[in-house]
Amino acid sequence: MKSYWRWAKGVCLVVLLLAAQGEAARAQEARAAAKLLHTLTEQGAPLWLSPDGRTLAFRGEDVQLYDVATGTLKAKVPVRPELTPKGVYFTPDGKALVVHTDRVQVVDANDGKVLREFAEGSAPINFYRRIYTGREETSYDESSGTYSTTYHGPSDKETLQELPTLDPSDRVVSPDWKSILVRKDDGAAEVYDFETGKPKFTLSPKLGPGEQVGLHFDALGEFSPDGKLILTSHASRTPRLWNAATGELVADLAPHSHFVYGARFSPDGRFIVTTSFDGVVKTWDGATGKFLHAFGSAQDPTYFAAWNPRGDTFVTKSRKWEVDIWGAATGKLVARLDRKAVKEKFDDNFTFAYSPDGRRLLTRARNVDNVLSVLKSAVLLMPRRSKTRRIAYLWDAATGKLVAAMVD
To answer: pLDDT tens digits for 138-175?
Structure first.
């Protein structure tokens, strides 16, 4: 527990530093006293705060809505057991909450009453639901006559696919909040009228070269920053660009050599990045879908991780534990994180977050083994007893140099 709180305090410190960057002088003059007002939920529950700061929602057996000022429970919203943190979000005015249960529902943030709902079977389009589920394997022991079940997590390649989805798109609603992009049970991408809940059109293209029937499942997608285009990708090899007003196909982004599981607009909408299962990242013109550059290969897999919020650069991670920052317009390497500045070996679940001004990059690994512990266990042929360490690093996004390290 003490280890958890040391880690939590470290992460909070980084968040505060990132948010306050550029305003240091004013922050030094400001003094405020923090006072605990209410304790509403147990540790670890997913939380959502309304944009107006008046309502706090968190996930228990259902989604519970609390008044921030008084700490009183306002309403409960029933949800499906598999609801994810990206299956709940507030409207910009904070008056309503969008919740994906057995369909998309818009509920009143004050009393939890359903204001409108969409077609049954609609689900969030900003995360995959099939790739990361592990599998159970049952074996039979003839000598004892008993069965045993072993759980197997995702493979190395599957965990690498988590990179883009750990920071999934929040652009599932158009900028004017008139349309919402969802995924049906059959995996198709659909656009609904947000005000009425009625369907507008389905984005279901014909199969392209090299694609197979039955692979158009689990669509991912997002609106462009200006709301004029929609970008989708399926397990099929061709991401696509659509007219957000009519649903007409604007461009097929030339096929990848393997399944595509991620496609994102740059923050300014000028570029698109797509990433495939075999470790090839491609960039495209955000308006026309014209191909620009390719990164990585089947022999040297590279996976997209995150866009810089203030520029045309993005982060990739390779299977060789290299983290690179690339220029989307030029296709050239901007910086490589200095691996020699750290002692730990990171696992494939390496997550990334930029500071709002794009000058700092925060990296974090969920499972990290101390290198010395690994060597000791290998030499002495002894099982490792050291605890898994949580580590976060802060980097200069322009040079790749280490700025700060936080280790529990």
So the answer is: 778 888 888 877 755 545 455 444 444 445 567 888 99
8 A C-beta contact, residue 252 and residue 289:
yes
**Alpha carbon distance 237, 38 (integer Å):** 50
Residue 232 pLDDT > 60, yes or no? yes
* Rounded Cα–Cα distance for residues 354 and 303 (Å): 17
Structure tokens at 197: 């809940």
Single-letter residue type at 183: R
Widest CA span in the chain: 74
Q: Give the residue with greater pLDDT, 104 vs 214.
A: 104
In this prediction, residue 350 has a pLDDT band, given cuts at 50, 70 and 90, of low
Q: How many CA atoms within 13 Å lie on the side-chain side of 299? A: 0
The full length of the chain comes to: 408
pLDDT, tens digit (0-9, with 9 covering 90-100), for 200-230: 998 876 655 655 555 555 678 899 999 999 9
pLDDT (average), residues 310-334: 89
Structure tokens at 293: 């550059």
**Average per-residue pLDDT in the chain?**
75
**Structure-token pair, residue 36:** 């605990």
- What DSSP string runs through 19-54? HHTT-HHHHHH-----------S-TT--EEE-TTSS
CA separation, residue 263 to residues 39, 196, 300, 391, 392 (Å): 39, 28, 20, 28, 26
Contact status, residue 249 vs residue 212, Cβ threshold 8 Å = no
294/390 Cα distance (integer angstroms):
33
